[in-house]
């Protein structure tokens, strides 16, 4: 399942409005087929893996990050039907598909055909993999990641405004990879006027995946898509993943609106005593700051540390 989840990430940002799914077919301990949802949503991951496996799919186990679809489409057959026709012996599903056309129906169809089905393996990671699809479906807006590159004391610039560069080349390269995984990137008016950022992707082979540029401002700017408030991100067509990069006031505006789902914190081993990374959040007591975020990943990028935080589950249920 871990391999299937990795395959699913290959389709992130290019499969909308379909979710990005991964599939592995294993028979007698050998991988016989691999697939991931292709650009535009078709073929589905299962169809690609079955096509690669051919007759070797008979008797195999399919590991799929999302329940195989149960509905027919003009663009392709139902994946549950394809798995049945291929003669797979077992299907391991990370999570059920919330789409009412499939929700539980794909699993039921497989079981009715005599195929053993196991569910819930790697479910939490599968939800992260298709976070954009899920957030758009349940909240009607893109999944929002707030990116911060700070010093140890939480600053994003010196007192005189100098900010290039706080983090090292490894952290900046990772940040460009994150840009490539988002359909759109947003900054505020202050960052635009101070830094005139390009907001492109400067990684070999991924230059074409530069995200659309969004400006949070009440005033227009040439070459930018404008929104005047965080709630307007719901109107961004074709955007399921939004990266918010700056600056301090923009970060605080999205946080105060409770519209940040994930935080990427790149922390450099320096002390600046300069400008804070986040402006006033309007909190009046410390209790209101606790219980909102949970650490889901941390790693070293050169001399810098990356910490990834997601909304705490109890907040999601409110």
Automatic annotation (TrEMBL):
<protein>
    <recommendedName>
        <fullName>Riboflavin biosynthesis protein RibD</fullName>
        <ecNumber>1.1.1.193</ecNumber>
        <ecNumber>3.5.4.26</ecNumber>
    </recommendedName>
</protein>
<dbReference type="InterPro" id="IPR024072">
    <property type="entry name" value="DHFR-like_dom_sf"/>
</dbReference>
<keyword id="KW-0686">Riboflavin biosynthesis</keyword>
<dbReference type="GO" id="GO:0009231">
    <property type="term" value="P:riboflavin biosynthetic process"/>
</dbReference>
<dbReference type="Pfam" id="PF00383">
    <property type="entry name" value="dCMP_cyt_deam_1"/>
</dbReference>
<feature type="binding site">
    <location>
        <position position="163"/>
    </location>
    <ligand>
        <name>substrate</name>
    </ligand>
</feature>
<dbReference type="GO" id="GO:0008703">
    <property type="term" value="F:5-amino-6-(5-phosphoribosylamino)uracil reductase activity"/>
</dbReference>
<keyword id="KW-0378">Hydrolase</keyword>
<feature type="binding site">
    <location>
        <position position="191"/>
    </location>
    <ligand>
        <name>NADP(+)</name>
    </ligand>
</feature>
<feature type="binding site">
    <location>
        <position position="195"/>
    </location>
    <ligand>
        <name>NADP(+)</name>
    </ligand>
</feature>
<comment type="pathway">
    <text>Cofactor biosynthesis; riboflavin biosynthesis; 5-amino-6-(D-ribitylamino)uracil from GTP: step 2/4.</text>
</comment>
<dbReference type="GO" id="GO:0046872">
    <property type="term" value="F:metal ion binding"/>
</dbReference>
<feature type="binding site">
    <location>
        <position position="79"/>
    </location>
    <ligand>
        <name>Zn(2+)</name>
    </ligand>
</feature>
<feature type="binding site">
    <location>
        <position position="165"/>
    </location>
    <ligand>
        <name>NADP(+)</name>
    </ligand>
</feature>
<comment type="pathway">
    <text>Cofactor biosynthesis; riboflavin biosynthesis; 5-amino-6-(D-ribitylamino)uracil from GTP: step 3/4.</text>
</comment>
<dbReference type="GO" id="GO:0008835">
    <property type="term" value="F:diaminohydroxyphosphoribosylaminopyrimidine deaminase activity"/>
</dbReference>
<feature type="active site" description="Proton donor">
    <location>
        <position position="46"/>
    </location>
</feature>
<feature type="binding site">
    <location>
        <position position="44"/>
    </location>
    <ligand>
        <name>Zn(2+)</name>
    </ligand>
</feature>
<dbReference type="InterPro" id="IPR002125">
    <property type="entry name" value="CMP_dCMP_dom"/>
</dbReference>
<dbReference type="InterPro" id="IPR002734">
    <property type="entry name" value="RibDG_C"/>
</dbReference>
<dbReference type="Pfam" id="PF01872">
    <property type="entry name" value="RibD_C"/>
</dbReference>
<feature type="binding site">
    <location>
        <position position="149"/>
    </location>
    <ligand>
        <name>NADP(+)</name>
    </ligand>
</feature>
<keyword id="KW-0862">Zinc</keyword>
<keyword id="KW-0560">Oxidoreductase</keyword>
<comment type="similarity">
    <text>In the N-terminal section; belongs to the cytidine and deoxycytidylate deaminase family.</text>
</comment>
<feature type="binding site">
    <location>
        <position position="69"/>
    </location>
    <ligand>
        <name>Zn(2+)</name>
    </ligand>
</feature>
<feature type="binding site">
    <location>
        <position position="199"/>
    </location>
    <ligand>
        <name>NADP(+)</name>
    </ligand>
</feature>
<keyword id="KW-0479">Metal-binding</keyword>
<dbReference type="InterPro" id="IPR004794">
    <property type="entry name" value="Eubact_RibD"/>
</dbReference>
<keyword id="KW-0521">NADP</keyword>
<feature type="domain" description="CMP/dCMP-type deaminase">
    <location>
        <begin position="1"/>
        <end position="118"/>
    </location>
</feature>
<dbReference type="InterPro" id="IPR050765">
    <property type="entry name" value="Riboflavin_Biosynth_HTPR"/>
</dbReference>
<dbReference type="InterPro" id="IPR016193">
    <property type="entry name" value="Cytidine_deaminase-like"/>
</dbReference>
<comment type="similarity">
    <text>In the C-terminal section; belongs to the HTP reductase family.</text>
</comment>
<feature type="binding site">
    <location>
        <position position="245"/>
    </location>
    <ligand>
        <name>substrate</name>
    </ligand>
</feature>
<comment type="function">
    <text>Converts 2,5-diamino-6-(ribosylamino)-4(3h)-pyrimidinone 5'-phosphate into 5-amino-6-(ribosylamino)-2,4(1h,3h)-pyrimidinedione 5'-phosphate.</text>
</comment>
<feature type="binding site">
    <location>
        <position position="179"/>
    </location>
    <ligand>
        <name>substrate</name>
    </ligand>
</feature>
<keyword id="KW-0511">Multifunctional enzyme</keyword>
<feature type="binding site">
    <location>
        <position position="202"/>
    </location>
    <ligand>
        <name>substrate</name>
    </ligand>
</feature>
